[in-house]
Amino acid sequence: MNCLAVREHLPELAIGVLPEKEQAAVERHLQWCAGCRKEAADLGQAAATFAFALAPASVPRGLADRVVTRIRQAAGAPGSRRRMRAAAASTIAAMVAVAGLGWGAVMAGKADRFAERARVAEQQKSVALDQFRHVLANLGNIGTSLPGNETHFGQLAPTSTGRRGGGAVLQLVSPTMLDFVIVIVNGLDPTDTSALPYRVTLVNAVGDVLKAGRITRLDANGGAETFHQFQNRDLRGFTKVVVTDSSGEVVLRGTVDQSTGA
Amino acid sequence: MEGLLAGNEEAVRALYARFARPVFTLGLRLLGSAGAAEELTQDVFLTAWRKAARFDPGRGRLSTWLMTIAHNLAVDRLRRETGASRPTLIFVDEIPEIASGGEEEPLIERDVALRALTSLSDAERRLLARAYFGGLTAREIAESDGVPLGTVKTRLRTALIKVRRANQGKERP
Description:
The complex is a heterodimer. Chain A is of the alpha+beta class. Chain A contains seven helices and eight strands, in the order αααααααββββββββ. In chain A, strand 4 and strand 5 form a beta hairpin. The longest helix of chain B has 23 residues.
């Protein structure tokens, strides 16, 4: 999409009504085009100002205290984080499963022959879908609230050191929600307990490293899932995903494509 | 913002004092009930705390950032709640000015908004209201009014530029 086409969409982007598909393309353009970014900021500022034109309503008494309390709870309550974790992980995993993305790759390495690998992948996918449907049924609207253009997908492949296994990565990179990453691995050696714990890290272009998960046990298929939600960290640019074993050797590596949605 | 990042209560209360009323008002007008507006207000300040690291003063004002979060959260909620009744929209210049309740208010932003509104024609104000407060896309408006899509987009852009010009030099950071 060139500047001319992008600028045609900027008024709707500023007002918050640009359809999702166009929004993803425009956002990609804005990442590198300073001129359009300036125009978008100007129009966004104008649109936001419009909200102040409403006749002011009376704010309920005590709301300030309730806001402060809620932020305190979010900052320190492990229970609330666990609930968010369960909801977000299930939802994202379901999106992956329903979209049929990369399950063959996720399961790669657990079977030698292609036919067997495909059969096992299909079987696992079917089981996972049943679990996800059950979880989603209890989540109400949460499953529909994650914008497709803010979720990004990548695959993990074995390195020459690891030589086995595979995986998939999903990131939420959002301006209005807590960013998170889910990593699913499979086909690692379940008998090699000395390799545990595996560590998942994210790396950006300038070499900044974020801890993104720790795997302390593998199932019988050498599989595991990690979830990490970042309280005050923007995952934009953290596209490289690395899985290391307990000795620090890189066993899986991959890249998340943040230029497109999952 | 450093205080907000650290979860400093004083910083949260300062941000609240400045923006709670416009955020709550936007929630009330878009979502139609005080309960939903209060939930939205809590969500907005919680999100602001969580996303404080992403705020870049070089790319926009604090008021823009916060009201964009509020608008996005409200529109998302409206879209999720099918069948939700749309509230009646009332603009500041259509009713008598309400006296301050003693709480610190963003008077400058309101003043700027009033100035911006007077720079628009009635048709432009209605158009912006249908998109911003009604959540209608340019295509939906074009189909509803029977006018070309390009015309609606041009009018939206013209109206926003007028608002922007009216704002210039009148805002605080």
